[in-house]
Amino acid sequence: MKSSYGKTAAGLLACGVVFLIPALIPPARAADPAKPAPPGISAEASTALQQMSKTLSANEFSFQARTIRAYQENDGQPLHIFHTMKVVVHRPDRLAVHRTGDDGANDLFYDGKTVAIFGASANKYAQIAAPNNIEAMLDEVADRLQVDFPLADFVDTDPGKSFLSGVTSGREVNTVTIDGKPYRHLFFSQAGGIELEVWLDKTEQAVPRRLIATYRLMPGQPEFVAEFSDWNFSAHPSDAEFVFQPPAGAKQVTLTPAAVTSGSGGSK
């Protein structure tokens, strides 16, 4: 299985659509039995990720994230793209992502039967039939659009396992204080020159607070940065939150990369 952060690298270069960035996503899979962490991962880091994974395996939850993509243009100019997302999860077959940012506003609605992607700036949307679980739905969207959701690890059925895919080593750096609360600062290395840093709440829940993926072997060493907030594990979203209702005048377009890009308000 490819690392989701390896897939995110393509989006850093293309700076494509919304929470959807050009790449591939791994096929949906059944949950495998827990396996020991690779020998290069310390016990402290492994335990913290297991705690995070248990927390994020909840049937229902929501969170918000502010993200930055830092990348280098062909002429060497460094650029940054900012986004804000709200993500609502109801396992196994509901997902809503609402995103605004420098390249427009976009939404994804998945109700267990269909998935819709709406570009608010152009008032256009695309909609297709979808499989009956979140992982298979993301795979279907990726197959049809060649796009990805960069925070997919955190809505996977096994978040810890997904995060560690491709990781060769990991350790706890130290404990830091963020807004008066202690967080574990963890560092991981992947093949291909990818470095991951994640800050987890130093409690039994171990929810993520920050994430940085750095691509050491790519021009300009681009980064994907996310800062998480407003984790809510008492959320009980209604089915209506996952159903797309086209606004007045919205135009349906064919689900192709070009069509969705034109509907996103962004550019490649």
Question: Overview of this structure, please?
Answer:
The chain contains 5 helices and 14 strands. The protein is an alpha+beta fold. It has one domain (4-28, 39-263): Clam (outer membrane lipoprotein receptor (LolB), chain A), CATH 2.50.20.10. A 12-stranded mixed beta sheet has the order 9-10-11-12-13-2-3-4-5-6-7-14. Strands 1-8 form a two-stranded antiparallel sheet. Strand 11 and strand 12 form a beta hairpin. Mean pLDDT is 83; it is low at 10-34 and 258-268.
Secondary-structure blueprint:
Layout: H1 4-14, E1 21-22, H2 43-56, E2 60-72, E3 78-90, E4 94-101, E5 104-110, E6 114-119, E7 124-129, H3 134-145, E8 147-148, H4 159-164, E9 167-178, E10 181-190, E11 194-201, E12 208-215, E13 223-232, E14 251-252, H5 257-264
Parallel strand pairs: 7-14
Antiparallel strand pairs: 1-8, 2-3, 2-13, 3-4, 4-5, 5-6, 6-7, 9-10, 10-11, 11-12, 12-13
Count every helix, treating DSSP H or I runs of 4 or more residues as helices.
Answer: 5
Query: How does the major sheet shape up?
Result: 12 strands, mixed
Shape: globular
Portion of residues within helices = 10-25%
